[in-house]
Amino acid sequence: MSSHRHHSRPAPDPQAAVDFQSWLEQQRGRVESALDHWLPREEEPPQIIHRAMRYSVFAGGKRIRPILCLAAAEAVASEAPGVMEAACALEMVHTYSLIHDDLPALDNDDFRRGRPTCHKQFGEAIAILAGDALLTLAFHVLARAECPAPETRARLVEELSTAAGTPGGMIAGQVEDLEGEGKAPTPELLESIHRAKTGALLTAAVRMGAICGNAPPEPLEALTRYGRHVGLAFQIVDDLLDVEQSTETLGKTAGKDAKQKKITFPAVYGLPASHRMAEQEISAALREIEGFGERARRLREMALLVLHRSR
């Protein structure tokens, strides 16, 4: 990664890094096991749709959204019933969005996570239906969440549907992204696209974890602001990686944003300023959770992971 991003930060503690990696792997394992439980088996008819769903869900994702959800719950409570169902629902919605995003009618990508995209593997019709099925299954999972209060389940459904839809959610951001191709890149349009397209679901991940942990209003607001800063940083880093990394490292086609004349942070601000902005967003996110002390340790580590990821 570029040198811009490493100035004036204390040297990381190697033991803490090892501990975080081991925690991350443990959480990933928990999420994968729960996803495996909720997804229909491959041999269940109609087999092709279940194979396609599993192909995309288990394609080696980083599971950042579900793990942020678990870490937010940990920051507010020692017990958070229903949080694993919330985490799975988030990952299902995220995976559906990737399947549809890769389709020829949208971003037209042949590779995702280093292997053929769902429509390349199963055909466009099955890819569309696999996305639809994952979106539908996400809300089935939330309806079955083990929350003691039914209103908590209703709040989780509201959070996820708002973040995934329109006017301010992921679908709205996708539409603005499509309509923005080839337009003059402005800071206002850029922010509007990415707060909705990427930021809304990342923020919802944090909020849903906090809701499962029964967070009072003030901590929930602080975590919401943390989620917004992390969400914007995530997108800035994504845009930078598209310019600075190879297709092999990314596991998806590099350099596509420029080819498709997409409105990105490097296109609007240039590379050095975009690196600085990503760091500023993460610093702002970390300030929001200072009051949580040691309970928010994993949220701090997740924020730094978003900043320093290489794919």
Can you give a write-up of this model?
This protein has helices at residues 14-38, 47-57, 64-76, 83-101, 118-122, 124-143, 150-164, 170-180, 187-212, 217-244, 247-250, 256-259, 265-269, 271-288, 297-308, and strands spanning 111-112, 115-116. It is mainly alpha-helical and 311 residues long. The protein has one domain (18-308): Farnesyl Diphosphate Synthase (Orthogonal Bundle), CATH 1.10.600. The protein has a two-stranded antiparallel ribbon. It is globular and about 45 Å long. The protein starts with 13 loop residues before the first helix and ends with a helix. Mean pLDDT is 93; it is low at 1-9.
Task: Give a quick rundown of the structure.
The chain has 15 helices and 2 strands.
Query: So, CATH architecture?
Result: Orthogonal Bundle
Mean pLDDT across all residues, rounded?
A: 93
CATH topology: Farnesyl Diphosphate Synthase
The CATH superfamily name is Farnesyl Diphosphate Synthase
Total discrete domains: 1
Radius of gyration: 19 Å
Major sheet:
2 strands, antiparallel
**Secondary-structure element sequence?**
HHHHEEHHHHHHHHHHH
